[in-house]
Amino acid sequence: MQEIKIEDTVLLIDTSRSMLRRDIKPGRSSRLDLAIQTAINFIKTKFVIDAKDRISIITFGKNVKKLTSYTYDENKLIDSLKRIQISGKGQLHQAIAFSLQTIVQEMRKIGGKVQRIVILSDNKLEFDEKKIEKIINIAKGLNVYIDICQIGKTGDVGQNFLKRTSQITGGIYGYFNNAKTISNDGKDVD
C-alpha cells in the first residue's frame, strides 16, 4: 500500500474588483461568491481525504493579506472567508511570492510534505512578466505545485498564463464558467 503524503496547501484567493462581476449562470452569481464556495468545498473535501493536511488562506487584490496561518481547523478556515474584502487590482507575482514565503517558513520547520498553492481567480490579473517567470521557476525548484481554478469568461484559454503556470509547476488547471460545474469540480482541485 502506497503511503499518502501529507500536504500543506495555500489557498490564494483573488479579491480584485473584477471578481464582483455577476456573469456566472445560473443565478448570476459573482465570481467571488463562486471562489468562496469553491474554497469551502475544497476545505471540506481536503479534510475528508486526510485530516492531517493543513491549509492556509491568503487573499490578494491591492494588498496581499493572510487570513489564516496553516491549520487543521475546518471551522476556523471557513469562518475566515467571511473577512474577505474586495480591493483594487493586485500583482500576481507578489501574491505568489508571499505564498512561497509562507511555504518556505513551514518547510524549514517540517520537511517531507507536498506543498501546493491553489489559486482561485478570474485571470483579470496584472503581473510583471520577468518577475512572474522568476517566481514560477522558484516554485518549480521548491517542488511547489500551483493548481489553478479559473472562474468566469476568458478570451483565449490557449494563451492563458494561469494555465501555463500550472503546467510549468506540474499543477492542475481548471476553467469554470457556470455555478454547477464549479461547485462539483471545485472538490477535485486537491
- CATH 4th-level superfamily: von Willebrand factor, type A domain
The oligomerization state is single chain
What is the makeup of the main sheet? Answer: 6 strands, mixed
**Silhouette:** globular
**Highest CATH level, the class:** Alpha Beta
Instruction: Determine the fraction of residues in helical runs and give it as a percent range.
Output: 25-40%
Distance between the termini: 20 Å
Low-confidence stretches: 185-190
SSE string, helix = H, strand = E? EHEEHHEHEHEH
> How would you write the strand order of the largest sheet?
3-2-1-4-5-6
CATH architecture: 3-Layer(aba) Sandwich
* CATH third-tier fold name: Rossmann fold
| Arithmetic mean pLDDT | 86
Radius of gyration: 15 Å
Describe this protein's structure:
There is one protein chain. Strands 3-2-1-4-5-6 form a six-stranded mixed β-sheet, sandwiched between helices. Helix content is 38%, strand content 23%. The chain has a single domain, classed as 3-Layer(aba) Sandwich (Rossmann fold), CATH 3.40.50.410. It has six helices and six strands, in the order βαββααβαβαβα.
